[in-house]
Amino acid sequence: MMTTSYQENEYQKPIIQPKKFVLWGAIASMIMMFAGLTSAYIVRKAQGNWVLFKMPDIFWISTIVIIISSITLYLAERSFKQENIKMYRLSLGITFVLAVVFLVCQYLGWKQMGEYGIHLKGNPSGSFLYVISGLHALHLVGGLFFILIMFVKSFFLHPVKLLIDTLNPERYLNIELLSTYWHFVDILWIYLFIFFLINSL
User: Fold this and answer.
1) What confidence tens digit (pLDDT) does each residue in 3-43 have?
2) Phi first, then psi: what are they for 75, rounded to 5°?
C-alpha cells in the first residue's frame, strides 16, 4: 500500500502547469514594471518643468484596434477547441493583421507627438510617454511573434491529428497561454491609454 501511495504521489500532476506558472510570473513582473513607470511619471510631473500636450488622436484608433484583436483571438481559441480549423486560422490571421495595425498606429502617434514638439530627448513628459508606450509595443511584438508561429502551424493541422490529440491534456495549452498573454497586453494598454489621457488634461 505504501508503494502504491508513493507512486501516486510521484506521478501526481503539479497544482499549476509549469508554463502557466512562468507566464503568470512574467505578467506579475510586467505589472510591477509599468506600475513603477506610471508612478514615476506622476512623481516627476509634480516636480514641475513639465509640458502638457494633447494625446495623439490616433491612439484612440490603436486602442479600438487592440480591443478588437482580443475579440478575434478569443474567437480563435474557441474555434480551436471546437476543432474548427478554418475559423481558427482565419481568426488568428485577423488578429495578426490587427496587431500590425496597432503597431503602425503607435508609430504614427509618436510622429504626431514629434509634430507637437514633444521628443524622446527633451522635456520629461515626452520621454516618459515614448518609453512607456514603447515598452508596451515591445511586449506586444513578443506576442505577435507567437501569433505568427501559431498561424503558420495552423496550416499543418488536420482533423485526424486533432482527434488523436483528444486525450492529450495539454492540447489547448499553447492557445490558452497566448490568449492569456494577449488579453493582458490589451488590458495593459487600456490602462496606459486612460492614464496618459487623464494626465494630459
Assistant:
1) 444 344 444 555 677 888 899 999 999 999 999 999 988 88
2) -65, -35
Nearest to 38 by CA among 167, 197, 195, 183: 195
Tell me the pTM.
0.84
Q: Does domain 15-47+54-199 have CATH number 1.20.120.80?
A: yes
Contacts of 180 (CB under 8 A, 6+ apart): 20, 23, 27
Contact yes or no for 162/83 (Cβ under 8 A): yes
Say what percent of the chain tops pLDDT 90: 50
C-alpha to C-alpha distance for 76 and 99, rounded to whole angstroms: 14
Characterise 83 by phi-psi region: left (phi > 0), alpha (psi -120 to 50), beta (else). left
Neighbours of 153 (CB within 10 A): 12
Distance CA 138, CA 43 (A): 24
* 187 or 128, higher pLDDT: 187
Domain boundaries, the chain: 15-47+54-199
Nearest CA to 189 out of 134, 136, 126, 112 is that of: 136
pLDDT at 58 exceeding the cut of 80:
yes
Judge whether 91 and 70 are in contact, CB under 8 Å. Answer: no
* 124 vs 1: CA distance, rounded Å: 68
